[in-house]
Structure formats: C-alpha cells, structure tokens
Specification:
The complex is a heterodimer of chains A (119) and B (539). By secondary structure, chain A is mainly α. Chain A has a single domain (19-108), classed as Helix Hairpins, CATH 1.10.287.3510. Chain A is built from four helices and no strands. Mean pLDDT of chain A is 85; it is low at 1-5. By secondary structure, chain B is an all-alpha fold. Chain B has 26 helices and four strands. In chain B, the strands form two sheets. Chain B has a two-stranded antiparallel sheet. In chain B, strands 3-4 form a two-stranded antiparallel sheet. Chain B is globular, with a radius of gyration of 23 Å. Chain B starts with a helix and ends with a helix. Residues 517-539 of chain B have low confidence and may be disordered. The chains are: A mainly alpha (119), B mainly alpha (539). At the A-B interface, helix 2, helix 3 and helix 4 of A face helix 8, helix 9 and helix 12 of B.
C-alpha cells in the first residue's frame, strides 16, 4: 500500500531530472546570459542597457533553479529569491539614477555622457 | 545554538546597521545642532563597532561553531574597516556645504535637497562598511553575494550625490552599470559552482572539490569555469585588469572624499571575498579528511585558476603603471596607482595561505593609511570652491602650506616603498611571500613595476616643492573644514610611526588567518613556519 505512492514519486523525480530537460534549461540560461552580455556591450540606451543586466540576472536565476532541481536540493531556489530581491533593489537605484541623468541632459543615450576620459 | 553564535560574531555589523538608521533619521532633524552632530555620531558608532569586534573575536566558543573557513579573519578586517571608516567620515564631513546650510537656515537661499546630504551620506557610508564586515562572516555563496551587494549598492548613491554636477552623475552611471555587469558575472560563476558541487556552503563545496581533485577525473571543468567567472566578477571590486576600465573615470568624477572611499573600501571587500573563495577552491598547505576517511593534503588552487591569477596580477600592475605614467590629473593618477597596488596585493593571493594572505592583509592596512593621508590633503584644500584635481593646483604648495606638502610627500613615499615608511614593509612582506611560494618571476615583474612607479610618485611629491607657484595654484586655499587636514596629518605621521609596530600588526594579520582546523595541519605539515616579521627582527 505504502510502496506505490513512493514509487510514483520516485518515478516523477526521475522524470523531472531528465538530463535532456536539464540540458535544455542550462543552454537556455546560457543564451539568456550571453544575449544580456552582448546587448549590454553593444546597446547605447541606458534603459536598454539596464534591461540587459536584468536579462543576465534572469539567466543566472534559471541556471540556479535548474541546478537546484538537478541536485534535488532546495538551497539553489532560495538563492534565486535573493537574486530577485537584489535585482529589484538595483532596479530602483538604476531608475533613480537614470531620471537624475535624464533631467540634466534630456537624453538616454550614454554617448552624451563622455566628459570623463583620458586627456 | 549555532544561530546565536553566528549572531554574536556579527554584532559589530549589527551595530553599524543600527547606526545607519539612527544617522539617517537624525540627518532629517529640524535642528541644525543635531544635523551637525551626525558625523560625530557616525564616528561613535564606528568606534563602538571596533571595540565590540575585539571582544567578540576573543570568544573561542563563538569562533569554533561559526562554520567559517577563516573564522578569525573578521577580527582583523573589521578592526581595519572601522578605523578606515573613521578616517573616511572625517574626510567626508567636508562634502556638505556649510555656508549653504547657513544660507538656507537664514532664508537667503532656496532649499535644494541635493546639497543637503549629510544624514544620507553617513548612513550609506555605515551601510557600505557593514557590508564589508559581513563579507568576513560569509558561510555560503548567498551570504557572500548579499554582503558584496550591500557593500557596493550604497556607493552608487554616494558617488551620484557627492557633487552636484554632471561629472559626478556620469561617474555614478558608469560605476553602476559596470558594477551590475560584474555582479551578474560572479553570480553566474556562483551558479556554475553550485551546479558542479551541489551545495552553496563553502565548507561543503571545498570538501566536494577536494574529493573531485583526488579522483582520477579531477575537478569538473564546469567548476573551474565557475571559479574563473566568480573571480572575474570580484576583480571589479579590486579594479584588477579586465575589470579596471571604470576606475579612472569614476574616481575623477566623484568628489575627493568619495574617491578616497572608493579607493579603499571596495578593495577590502573584494580581497576578503577573494580570500574566502580561494579557500573554498582549495589553497595549499591545508589537510582535510575526505568522506572516505582518508587524510589528504590539498594541492592548492586548480592550475587554470592559479595561472589566471598570476596573469591578472602581472597585467594589473603593468597596465596600471602605464596608465599612471600618462596622467595630468591627480585623481586619475590615484586610480591607476590603486590598480597597480591591487596587482601587488594579488601576489599575496597567488602565494597562498602560507604567508601570502597575512602579507596581503598587512598591505591592505598600509595602502589604506597612505590613501587616507593623500586624500586628507586633497580634500582639505580647495580652489575657489572646487576640488583639487590637477598637478597645476599643487605647484608651489611647499611654500604656502609646508605641512600639507610634507604629508603628500610621505604618502607618495609610502606608495613607492621608501624604507622607513609603512608601504615599504607591506611591499617587502608581499614580495617575500611571493618568493617563498616559488613565484620569483612574478615578484621580479612587481619589483620592476615598483621601480617604474617611483617616477610618477616622485612627481607627486616633487611638484609642490620644485615647481614655482602660478596664479592658478595661488588661488588654492584651505577648505572650509579642519577635519580632512587633521586626517592627513594623523595618517601622514602614522606612515612614519606605524612601522615601529610592524611586528604586532603583522602578527595580528597572521593569527587572523590561522585558527581552528587550519592551525593544526599547518603546524604539522610545515616544520618551521618562519614569518617575515620574525626574520626582520633578527636581521
């Protein structure tokens, strides 16, 4: 009687940590991270650059969740909660800074901000 | 039980949090007397946390059950952070425009929230220092991540508010974006480490990695990539080479007291984080018992990581030097000099736990003292209400303000490594540790760089004496506040006096790295642990 649900649970767990699923999730997280990094390095609009860093954070979060499932260990998912919280705090800061800069120059282009450079 | 012990060890940090809240509230007070007392209260909280640190870290029960890789490192680092924080508070009191405050109080000027930053500035300063202190107590990757973020997030705001001009804003946005990118980088590294080991706890990760290293397959390549990314992200904090590009721009745009803050505090956080992470990756000279019950000596960092640190150290000191040689602006010069010093300090990391980290911790203290003296001079002087920024402002300073010129010369001498000054002992110990661990080539590169760096440091010390004063430099006057100049004098004299206490200070750094499980194996595996400090005494 008690054996059947346990077996079913175990089967489900095996199903969930199917290596193929893990692979797909990891490749997807790496893609998210790389797209974010690429966008960060190439785009010149401050809001878009900020979104790109968010994209990188989400890539990390997805990787964390995947590994957490792979190891059947909950701590990775706890980490994700903290990543999201810090990302939100960073978003508040970033938008504050962007508003401050927009008021001075009325443009969001980072190219307009190049007073500081090698002389 | 364990929770109580963990909380005991972070009492100094908690005290700073309380201080941050108190200071933020008092900064909004309607009474001018209370607002003016804010820096004083900040200083009191910092003194309190340094005192509490001494008591907390003398309690063996708390240290034993702390679950930390280096339980005692906080004793040294928190004391250092607190003392440096005191100096930085004294520098920062100058950021607020007192004349303007009086004008607002008497109603002759309109209120501008950007120019009244006293309470927030000090609250953010305390929060950032608390973040640095928390890095020492990190038991797992989550804690390390949160502590590093806590140490860096307030600084973005401090940079933006430090001056009411476009350059401060520009430096804040540059600092913020690159900082966010570096955070994402080290987080991805953390994720990979977690994936390769299945744990977030440093001690568990270390054990898993050691077991993997002992196996035939060796450490999973995945874990090695994770280590590399994690270190790369943290290189931003110490402005080491691939992540150093922000430093000159950000330092130049921020106000002088804030630049002093940026040149010291993130470096302490970054180096402690690197020490903790390298301990996790397995430094040499440590034994441990694996799951199978066998005792094994860890061979040290995985070869790719060790090679990466070596290359980064060489590139950091060389590129920093090349950049510094070309500068006319003092603040950019200090930025590049800070990059170079990070390169020297990385030798301590490459050398490993044997003597390297002790030397590194000592060097951090020496470097902080020199920077405080230098920024005391820069923040204590003003030219028509603007910060001192270029060498031209300093021409002929020797004739008008001999004391400030002397302090500047002492700071420069300490950075070069002139013998009686503390910078010399710091460099000597790092170099000795490097040679002892067999990295002779690295130390040779560092010595050559050190020689090259004397050119621009002597320039820094010489311009006030040699060059004739110009109308521009004659308009330089003392700043509105005494405190920064006082810091300059105290730290400048400290550069001369502290070397007398080299041995006790070095012993403090050494004992903070050796405690508990590390102590016994080190005593067993190393027959005669000679310390540079002792050798110096005999010689």
């Amino acid at each position: 009687m008690s054996g059947t649900p346990t077996l079913a649970l175990a089967a489900e767990a095996v199903e969930l940590i199917n290596p193929r699923t893990i692979q797909i999730c990891l490749v997807f997280s790496a893609l998210l991270f790389s797209i974010g990094l690429f966008g960060f390095l190439t785009r010149r609009n401050m809001i878009v650059m900020f979104l790109c860093t968010e994209l990188m954070f989400q890539g990390v979060a997805l990787a964390m969740v995947t590994f957490s499932r792979m190891h059947l260990d909950i701590s990775g998912q706890v980490f994700v909660i903290f990543i999201l919280t810090v990302a939100a705090a960073e978003a508040a800061l970033a938008l504050g800074l962007v508003v401050l800069l927009y008021r001075r120059r009325t443009t969001l282009d980072v190219g307009a901000w190049s007073e500081l450079k090698e002389c | 039980m364990e929770m109580v012990e963990k909380l005991t060890l972070i009492t100094p940090d908690i005290l700073l949090f309380v201080g941050a809240v108190v200071v933020a509230v008092l900064g909004l007070s309607g009474s001018r007397t209370i607002r003016q007392a804010v820096p004083l209260i900040t200083g009191l909280f910092l003194i309190g946390s340094v005192v509490v640190t001494q008591f907390v870290y003398a309690d063996p029960a708390a240290l034993e059950s702390s679950g930390l890789l280096f339980p005692k490192i906080g004793g040294y680092v928190k004391s250092l952070t607190g003392v440096v924080g005191l100096g930085l508070v004294a520098l920062g009191t100058g950021t607020v425009d007192r004349a303007y405050e009086r004008a607002v109080a008497s109603g002759s000027a309109a209120f501008d929230p950007l120019r009244v930053v006293r309470g927030e500035y000090h609250a953010f300063l305390l929060l950032s220092l608390a973040g640095v202190m928390l890095v020492c107590n990190a038991t797992d990757l989550i804690w390390l991540f949160l502590a590093l973020e806590l140490s860096v997030l307030p600084t973005y705001v401090m940079v933006a508010l430090s001056r009411n001009n476009r350059r401060a804003n520009e430096s804040a946005i540059k600092y913020f974006f690159l900082g966010a990118m570096s955070t994402a980088l080290f987080l991805y590294g953390f994720a990979m480490l977690y994936g390769a080991t299945g744990s977030l706890n440093f001690i568990e990760i270390r054990d898993v990695l050691a077991t993997q290293a002992a196996g035939e397959a060796g450490i999973a390549p995945f874990a090695v990539v994770g280590m590399g990314l994690a270190l790369l992200g943290i290189f931003f904090k110490i402005s080491a080479v691939p992540m150093h590009v922000y430093a000159p721009d950000v330092y130049e745009g921020a106000s002088n007291p804030m630049t002093g803050f940026l040149s010291i505090v993130p470096k302490i956080a970054g180096f402690v984080a690197i020490i903790v992470l390298c301990g996790t990756f397995g430094w040499a000279g440590r034994e441990q018992i694996t799951a199978a019950g066998t005792t094994m000596v860890q061979e040290g960092l995985p070869a790719p990581i060790s090679a990466m640190l070596w290359m980064v150290a060489v590139l950091t000191m060389t590129l920093g030097n090349i950049g510094a040689l070309l500068q006319k602006s003092i603040k950019r010069l200090v930025a590049y000099s800070g990059i170079t010093h990070s390169g020297y300090m990385l030798i301590g990391i490459v050398a490993g736990t044997e003597n390297g980290t002790d030397a590194l911790l000592f060097y951090l203290a020496a470097y902080s003292l020199g920077n405080l003296a230098l920024f005391g001079v820069l923040a204590g002087l003003t030219r028509m209400g603007q910060d001192i920024e270029s060498f031209d402002d300093l021409a002929g300073l020797w004739r008008t303000r001999p004391r400030m010129a002397t302090m500047m010369a002492l700071a420069a001498g300490s950075f070069v490594g002139m013998p009686p000054l503390i910078g010399f002992w710091g460099k000597l110990m790092v170099f000795i540790a490097g040679v002892e661990s067999g990295h002779v080539v690295l130390v040779c590169v560092a010595a050559v760089n050190s020689a090259i760096s004397s050119w621009y440091y002597l320039h820094l010390a010489g311009v006030p004496v040699v060059r004739m004063s110009t109308p521009r430099s004659e308009s330089v006057t003392n700043g509105p506040r005494m405190a920064p100049r006082l810091v300059a004098v105290i730290c400048g004299v400290g550069l001369l006096v502290v070397p007398v206490f080299t041995t006790p200070l070095y012993e403090f750094a050494r004992t903070s790295m050796r405690y508990g499980e590390l102590e016994e194996p080190a005593a067993r595996s190393v027959a005669s642990p000679t310390t540079p400090g002792r050798e110096l005494d005999q010689g």
